[in-house]
Amino acid sequence: RLAVGLSGERQSAGWWGDGRPASWADAVAAVHLVADTLGVAITVEQGAAPPWHPGRCARVILAGATIGHAGELHPQVCVAWGIPPRTSYAEVDLDVLVAAAPPLPQAPGLSSMPVAKEDIALVIPAEVPAAAVLEALRRGAGELLESVRLFDVYTGDPVPSGHRSLAFSLRLRAADRTLTESDAAAVRDAAVAEAARATGARLRS
C-alpha cells in the first residue's frame, strides 16, 4: 500500500504572499498525482472510515471499487499518536493502481506556456462534501486544468445559515499557447456550471 502524511506548512509565507497549512485537499491531490502519473482514472467521493475525521474523508474509487481513503485524521487519533492536529493522511492500494495502469503510461507533457489562475468562491449546503465539489470542478474545467485546490472554508455572514463558502484556486495551462482572459473565463464558467449541476453550488457574490 501507498501512504502519504502531511502536516505543517504546505506553502511558506513570504514576499510572494501568505502561507497556508497542509490540508485534506492536499492528501487527495497526492493520490490524484500518483494515479495521473500511472495513467489511471480514479474518482473520489465523500467517505467515512477510521482513522479519518468524519466529514473530511474522501473515498478513492477505481472501476467502482474502493481502493483507499484520503483526508484529515480524527483529532482523537492525532492526540493518541502524538502527531500535530489536523494532520492529513492518504492510503491507497498501490498494487491495484499499478495493475490498472496501461503498459506504457504516457508522461504528462511539459509546457513552457504561462499559468493562468482563477479563484472561485462557491456557496454550498453544509451537508455537501467538499470533495464532491472539488471533483465536480475538476470534471467541468476539462483538460486545460493543471490543478485545483481548496484554500478557504467560511461560515457566517453573509453566507446563509445551513451553508458554507468554499474557495478554490484553479491553475490553468495550455500546451501550445498562452491562455487569454476569455479562455480562462470559459474554463471557470464550465467548472462552476458542473459544480452547480452536481452539488447545487452557486457563486458567492
Tell me what the structure shows.
This protein is an alpha+beta fold. The chain has 2 domains: 2-100, Bira Bifunctional Protein, Domain 2 (BirA Bifunctional Protein, domain 2, 2-Layer Sandwich); 116-203, Alpha-Beta Plaits, CATH 3.30.70. It has helices at 24-38, 75-81, 94-100, 130-141, 181-199, and strands at residues 2-6, 9-11, 20-21, 43-46, 52-62, 65-73, 88-92, 116-125, 145-154, 163-172, 202-203. A hairpin with an 8-residue loop joins strand 9 and strand 10 (163-172). The longest helix is centred in the C-terminal third of the chain and has 19 residues, at 181-199. The protein starts with a strand and ends with a strand. The model has no long low-confidence stretch (mean pLDDT 88).
How far apart lie the N and C ends? 43 Å
What is the number of beta strands?
A: 11
Name the strands of the widest sheet in spatial order: 1-7-6-5-4
CATH architecture of the largest domain: 2-Layer Sandwich
Rg: 17 Å
From the helix content, strand content and strand pairing, which structural class follows? alpha+beta
The CATH class of the largest domain turns out to be: Alpha Beta
The helix/strand order is EEEHEEEHEHEHEEHE
The percent range for helix content is 25-40%
CATH-defined fold name of the largest domain:
BirA Bifunctional Protein, domain 2
Strand percentage: 25-35%
Total helical elements: 5
The parts where pLDDT drops under 50 for at least 5 residues are none
Name the shape in a single word: globular
Oligomer: single chain
Biggest pleated-sheet summary:
5 strands, antiparallel
Task: Provide the number of structural domains.
Answer: 2
CATH superfamily of the largest domain: Bira Bifunctional Protein, Domain 2
Mean pLDDT: 88
